[in-house]
Amino acid sequence: MTVEPKLAQDVWKDAGKHVQFTVLELKRQDQKHEQEVITAFADRYQAILRSLHIRENEGCLRATFGFSSDAWDYLFPNAPKPKELVPYQTLRGDKYEMPATKGDLFFHIRANDEAVVYEAMSQFMLFLRDITNVVDETKGFRYFEGRAIVGFIDGTEAPEMELASQYALVGDEDPEFVNGSYAFAQKWLHNMDFWNKLKTEDQEKAIGRQKFNDLELDDDEKFKNAHNVVSKVELNGEEQKIIRMNVPYSDPASGKTGTYFMGYSRYWQVTKLMLLSMLKGHDFLLSFSKILSGQLFFIPSKTVLDEIADGEFTK
């Protein structure tokens, strides 16, 4: 099977101006009915996106839709399963942990217009509301110059678009699910008072880059637990990459501000190794943050969505 990015969902580095992350839980009250709804929705989902592209062609709508391991087992018990789609379990280090939380269905929607995001999710829920409960709904936004909420340029280390598919999309190692992607979603809450009181020089040492111009610091200028030090992973001497997006969210009046982290990867194990490295190295970001959620999902290709819509996965 050949990797064809046009057959993948929108797993690319494109944060959008308005962003919504929605995690749903299946009610598990009537398996056959829920299978029928998801089968129909797999077709409706793509049709809704096509319609919104026509209705607002400058909205730059991008979306992904995926399933957790438990959801896959429940909805498609007799179908093949992506090789690395497993239940995410809490990762623990000697000082911090990254908790696992519930969730069956996942949506990542972004566009240049909040109305487009609203319309997409509203239409999705017309079909899904009766069989699901909402676990989490987080609205993100584009911060100044595309920076993370901590003030640094986001995504500098993400691979460029022409190279992204080899890091983001499943290939010949799992031919039934080629052009799919493993999505890891994690919601962070930051102590912004702590962060904002740090001197700019210390913030730079904590991230590993200069704040204004985004140039990387020399290794001897960084903290040992700088984020861009401890989040790097090498296999066989080669640095591994994923498609990562750090999306700011906030309820500023109540002081709740954080980052919704998205990582799309060809291999879940690569993302997992990065997370474990952050825990082992005591990533500075963990020192002023609380992680609220963590889930792993598989984002099927458009081809697989068509097969689900045709009932091939619920036979």
Short synopsis of the structure:
This protein is an alpha+beta fold and 315 residues long. The protein has helices at residues 31-55, 69-75, 114-128, 161-168, 192-197, 200-207, 227-230, 268-280, 302-309; strands at 18-26, 62-67, 91-92, 97-98, 105-111, 132-141, 181-190, 234-235, 238-239, 243-251, 256-265, 289-299.
Question: What would you note in describing this structure?
Answer:
- By secondary structure, the chain is of the alpha+beta class.
- It has helices at 31-55, 69-75, 114-128, 161-168, 192-197, 200-207, 227-230, 268-280, 302-309, and strands at 18-26, 62-67, 91-92, 97-98, 105-111, 132-141, 181-190, 234-235, 238-239, 243-251, 256-265, 289-299.
- The chain has a four-stranded antiparallel beta sheet with strand order 2-5-1-6. Strands 10-11-7-12 form a four-stranded antiparallel beta sheet. A two-stranded antiparallel ribbon has the order 3-4.
- A hairpin with a 4-residue loop joins β10 (243-251) and β11 (256-265).
- α1 (31-55) runs antiparallel to α3 and α1 (31-55) packs across α9 (302-309).
- The longest helix has 25 residues, at 31-55.
- It is globular and about 60 Å long.
- The model has no long low-confidence stretch (mean pLDDT 94).
Report the count of strand segments. Answer: 12
**Category by helix and strand content:** alpha+beta
Q: Which percent range describes the beta-strand content?
A: 25-35%
Major β-sheet profile: 4 strands, antiparallel
Return Rg in Å.
Answer: 19 Å
Let me know the average pLDDT: 94
- How many DSSP H or I helices? 9
Query: Element order, helices and strands?
Result: EHEHEEEHEHEHHHEEEEHEH
Overall 3D shape: globular
Strand order of the largest sheet: 2-5-1-6
Measured distance between first and last alpha carbons: 24 Å
